[in-house]
Amino acid sequence: MFEWIINVANSDAVQQANNIQDCINQKVDVIVARAEDSGTIGASIAAAKAANIPFITLDRVAAASGPQPIAHVGEDSYKQALSTATAFAKLLKDKGVQGKCIEFEGDLLDMNAVFRHQAWTEVEKSAGAWTTVATVPTQWKPELFYSGGLNALQAHPEANCIYTASDFTFSSIENALQAVDKLAPTGDPKHVWVAADDLHPQGYAAMIKKYIDVGTTFEVYDQAVLLVDVLTKIALGQPVDASNLVSGRLATSDMVEKMSHLYARDYTD
After folding, report:
1. Backbone angles phi, psi at 62, to 5 degrees
2. 249-262 burial by CB neighbour count: b if 16+ within 10 A, else e?
3. 225: how many CB neighbours lie within 10 A of its CB?
4. What are the tens digits of pLDDT across the range 137-169?
5. What pTM value is reported for the model?
6. For the segment 175-226, what is each residue's pLDDT rounded down to a tens digit?
């Protein structure tokens, strides 16, 4: 039976390091952390290793150049974005649209954002379905999704498509589109084609409204199940894989309501 100590870092890497050190001082049996900073988490991993405490990263991997945890549990974010971008390229070609896209880039201290940008760029080069006319650095901050998006839309009125590395704050993008009179569902002449990873609650709602055309799910439930499996193996003294990744599922506005066990719909209040 597990007993949990839950600490919250409030998006502060220094606070997270202090929280982890507190757990080490309490001589916990295992540490699970969602890295606020993929680089600096390495120091905490090293400290836990020195204290013989297994360390698991969840969702966000540690930078490859630093100390590594005993195991990582998360989604394959490169394949996730590759799935989205590939489907988006096909959609644009099927619709006869040559895309001029605005990319909303995540926090580059989070390797998930790095991998998603990499996949988007690779498909852009290989498929030739769009050109990225502006990249908005968001640092995963909702206010930057809005202000950066609005600036990009105003600077590039020719933009007819968007890729956002996560849809967790899609209302910010909706507000930016509304401000330039381009918030419209698929089928409306003003519609801006949108690819968005994760299908978080805001993204799910936007896909139902046909503002988002295609995306690949972030499987929170499956990651939680996999994490418990890894923790159980550690508790039983069994070997664990260094990398434990979940694959997302492609979703479109036409079929999303028929998809099973979507956490944004089925596992939220």
Report:
1. -80, 150
2. bebbbeebeebeeb
3. 12
4. 999 999 999 999 999 999 999 999 999 999 999
5. 0.88
6. 999 999 999 999 999 999 999 999 999 999 999 999 999 999 999 889 999 9
SS3 sequence, the chain? CCCCCCCCCCCCHHHHHHHHHHHHHCCCCCEEECCCCCCCHHHHHHHHHHCCCCEEEECCCCCCCCCCCCEEEEECHHHHHHHHHHHHHHHHHHCCCCEEEEEEECCCCCHHHHHHHHHHHHHHHHHCCEEEEEEEECCCCHHHHHHHHHHHHHHCCCCCEEEECCCCCHHHHHHHHHHCCCCCCCCCCCCCEEEECECCHHHHHHHHCCCCCEEEECCHHHHHHHHHHHHHHHHCCCCCCCEEEECCCEEECCCHHHCCCCHHHHCCC
Identify the bridge partners of residue 190 per DSSP, sorted by sequence position: none
Listed in sequence order, the residues at least 6 apart from 263 whose beta carbon sits closer than 8 Å to its beta carbon are: 218, 219, 220, 221
**How far apart (Å, rounded) are the C-alpha atoms in residues 113 and 73?**
16
State residue 263's pLDDT score.
Answer: 86
194 Cβ contact list (under 8 Å, min separation 6):
161, 162, 163, 164, 173, 206, 211, 212, 213, 214
**Whole-number mean pLDDT of the chain?**
94
Query: Starting at the edge strand that comes first in sequence, how are the strands of the sheet with 55-58 ordered?
Result: 31-33, 55-58, 71-75, 243-246
Sign of CA dihedral 19, 23, 24, 30: negative
User: Which amino acid, one-letter code, is at 106?
Assistant: G
- Count of Cβ atoms closer than 10 Å to residue 109 Cβ: 19
Using CA atoms, how far residue 165 sits from 25, 46, 216, 248, 264, in Å, is: 37, 30, 10, 14, 17
What span, in angstroms and rounded, lies between the C-alpha atoms of 125 and 122? 5
